[in-house]
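User: Design a sequence. Structure:
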Protein backbone atom coordinates (compact mmCIF):
# COMPACT_ATOMS: atom_id res chain seq x y z
CA UNK A 1 0.00 0.00 0.00
CA UNK A 2 2.57 2.54 -1.08
CA UNK A 3 0.73 4.66 -3.63
CA UNK A 4 -2.10 6.17 -1.61
CA UNK A 5 -3.73 7.82 -4.63
CA UNK A 6 -3.90 4.73 -6.84
CA UNK A 7 -7.61 4.16 -7.46
CA UNK A 8 -6.72 1.34 -9.87
CA UNK A 9 -5.47 -0.78 -6.97
CA UNK A 10 -8.22 -2.58 -5.10
CA UNK A 11 -8.17 -3.80 -1.52
CA UNK A 12 -10.36 -6.45 0.03
CA UNK A 13 -10.81 -5.50 3.69
CA UNK A 14 -11.93 -8.51 5.73
CA UNK A 15 -13.17 -8.01 9.27
CA UNK A 16 -15.26 -9.42 12.04
CA UNK A 17 -17.53 -6.97 13.85
CA UNK A 18 -16.70 -4.95 16.96
CA UNK A 19 -13.08 -4.12 17.78
CA UNK A 20 -11.65 -5.85 14.72
CA UNK A 21 -13.75 -3.63 12.47
CA UNK A 22 -12.76 -0.59 14.54
CA UNK A 23 -9.08 -1.46 13.99
CA UNK A 24 -9.55 -1.34 10.23
CA UNK A 25 -11.75 1.75 10.16
CA UNK A 26 -9.20 3.56 12.36
CA UNK A 27 -6.56 2.93 9.68
CA UNK A 28 -8.67 4.60 6.97
CA UNK A 29 -5.96 7.13 6.15
CA UNK A 30 -3.86 4.22 4.82
CA UNK A 31 -6.51 2.88 2.46
CA UNK A 32 -9.19 5.55 1.91
CA UNK A 33 -7.80 6.52 -1.51
CA UNK A 34 -7.87 2.96 -2.80
CA UNK A 35 -10.77 1.26 -4.45
CA UNK A 36 -12.00 -1.18 -1.84
CA UNK A 37 -14.61 -3.72 -0.96
CA UNK A 38 -15.33 -5.24 2.44
CA UNK A 39 -16.19 -8.67 3.79
CA UNK A 40 -17.86 -8.71 7.19
CA UNK A 41 -20.94 -9.82 9.10
CA UNK A 42 -24.41 -8.43 8.54
CA UNK A 43 -24.76 -7.01 12.04
CA UNK A 44 -26.00 -3.55 13.10
CA UNK A 45 -22.58 -2.12 14.05
CA UNK A 46 -21.06 -3.28 10.77
CA UNK A 47 -23.96 -2.03 8.67
CA UNK A 48 -23.70 1.40 10.35
CA UNK A 49 -19.92 1.64 10.00
CA UNK A 50 -19.89 0.49 6.37
CA UNK A 51 -23.12 2.06 5.12
CA UNK A 52 -21.36 3.85 2.24
CA UNK A 53 -19.08 0.94 1.35
CA UNK A 54 -19.44 -2.12 -0.86
CA UNK A 55 -19.76 -5.21 1.34
CA UNK A 56 -19.95 -8.96 0.84
CA UNK A 57 -21.70 -10.50 3.83
CA UNK A 58 -19.86 -13.40 5.46
CA UNK A 59 -21.36 -16.27 7.44
CA UNK A 60 -21.57 -15.82 11.21
CA UNK A 61 -20.58 -17.01 13.80
CA UNK A 62 -17.03 -18.06 12.98
CA UNK A 63 -15.58 -18.84 16.40
CA UNK A 64 -15.01 -22.60 16.52
CA UNK A 65 -17.65 -23.04 13.83
CA UNK A 66 -16.27 -25.34 11.13
CA UNK A 67 -19.44 -25.17 9.02
CA UNK A 68 -19.22 -21.38 8.66
CA UNK A 69 -15.44 -21.49 8.14
CA UNK A 70 -16.06 -23.78 5.16
CA UNK A 71 -18.92 -21.59 3.91
CA UNK A 72 -16.67 -18.52 4.19
CA UNK A 73 -13.90 -20.32 2.31
CA UNK A 74 -16.31 -20.95 -0.58
CA UNK A 75 -17.44 -17.33 -0.32
CA UNK A 76 -13.78 -16.30 -0.63
CA UNK A 77 -13.39 -18.54 -3.70
CA UNK A 78 -16.28 -16.59 -5.25
CA UNK A 79 -15.37 -13.07 -4.06
CA UNK A 80 -11.64 -13.05 -4.89
CA UNK A 81 -11.94 -13.76 -8.64
CA UNK A 82 -15.01 -11.53 -8.85
CA UNK A 83 -13.37 -8.51 -7.15
CA UNK A 84 -9.75 -9.12 -8.25
CA UNK A 85 -8.11 -7.27 -5.33
CA UNK A 86 -4.37 -6.59 -5.27
CA UNK A 87 -4.35 -7.31 -1.52
CA UNK A 88 -6.46 -8.73 1.29
CA UNK A 89 -6.13 -6.77 4.55
CA UNK A 90 -7.49 -7.84 7.93
CA UNK A 91 -7.24 -7.25 11.67
CA UNK A 92 -9.20 -10.44 12.39
CA UNK A 93 -10.85 -12.33 13.52
CA UNK A 94 -11.93 -15.77 12.36
CA UNK A 95 -13.47 -14.65 9.06
CA UNK A 96 -9.96 -13.64 7.92
CA UNK A 97 -8.59 -17.19 7.91
CA UNK A 98 -10.56 -18.63 4.97
CA UNK A 99 -9.98 -15.44 2.97
CA UNK A 100 -6.21 -15.58 3.53
CA UNK A 101 -6.11 -19.25 2.53
CA UNK A 102 -8.08 -18.49 -0.64
CA UNK A 103 -5.92 -15.42 -1.32
CA UNK A 104 -2.85 -17.67 -1.30
CA UNK A 105 -4.51 -19.94 -3.87
CA UNK A 106 -5.14 -16.91 -6.11
CA UNK A 107 -1.68 -15.43 -5.41
CA UNK A 108 -3.17 -12.30 -3.87
CA UNK A 109 -1.00 -10.46 -1.33
CA UNK A 110 -2.16 -10.50 2.29
CA UNK A 111 -1.63 -8.12 5.20
CA UNK A 112 -2.63 -8.86 8.79
CA UNK A 113 -2.72 -6.43 11.73
CA UNK A 114 -2.64 -8.08 15.17
CA UNK A 115 -5.08 -6.44 17.60
CA UNK A 116 -3.41 -4.27 20.22
CA UNK A 117 -5.57 -5.39 23.14
CA UNK A 118 -3.62 -8.66 23.48
CA UNK A 119 -0.11 -7.29 24.17
CA UNK A 120 1.38 -10.44 25.71
CA UNK A 121 -0.71 -13.29 24.30
CA UNK A 122 -1.13 -13.81 20.57
CA UNK A 123 -4.64 -14.12 19.17
CA UNK A 124 -5.77 -17.43 17.70
CA UNK A 125 -6.21 -15.75 14.33
CA UNK A 126 -2.75 -14.19 14.58
CA UNK A 127 -1.19 -17.57 15.28
CA UNK A 128 -2.90 -19.08 12.23
CA UNK A 129 -2.18 -16.20 9.86
CA UNK A 130 1.42 -15.56 10.90
CA UNK A 131 2.60 -18.24 8.49
CA UNK A 132 0.19 -17.19 5.71
CA UNK A 133 0.40 -13.40 5.70
CA UNK A 134 2.78 -11.68 3.29
CA UNK A 135 2.90 -8.78 5.73
CA UNK A 136 2.26 -9.46 9.44
CA UNK A 137 2.01 -6.36 11.60
CA UNK A 138 1.90 -5.77 15.35
CA UNK A 139 1.45 -2.58 17.33
CA UNK A 140 4.15 -2.83 20.00
CA UNK A 141 7.41 -4.57 20.91
CA UNK A 142 5.68 -6.87 23.40
CA UNK A 143 3.58 -8.36 20.59
CA UNK A 144 6.65 -8.72 18.41
CA UNK A 145 8.09 -11.20 20.92
CA UNK A 146 5.33 -13.62 19.83
CA UNK A 147 5.78 -12.80 16.14
CA UNK A 148 9.52 -12.14 15.60
CA UNK A 149 9.29 -11.58 11.83
CA UNK A 150 6.50 -9.01 12.15
CA UNK A 151 6.63 -5.29 11.50
CA UNK A 152 5.73 -2.85 14.26
CA UNK A 153 3.12 -0.30 13.19
CA UNK A 154 2.42 2.81 15.17
CA UNK A 155 -0.40 2.08 17.62
CA UNK A 156 -3.74 2.48 15.87
CA UNK A 157 -5.50 3.90 18.93
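Assistant: Done.
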Amino acid sequence: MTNSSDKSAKLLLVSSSGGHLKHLTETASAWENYERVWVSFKQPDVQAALENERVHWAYYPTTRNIKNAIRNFFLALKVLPQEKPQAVVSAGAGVAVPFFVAAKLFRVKTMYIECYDRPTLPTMTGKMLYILADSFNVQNEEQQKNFPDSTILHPIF
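Helices lie at 19-26, 28-31, 44-49, 66-83, 96-105, 124-129, 141-146. Strands lie at 10-14, 35-41, 55-58, 87-90, 109-113, 135-138, 151-152.
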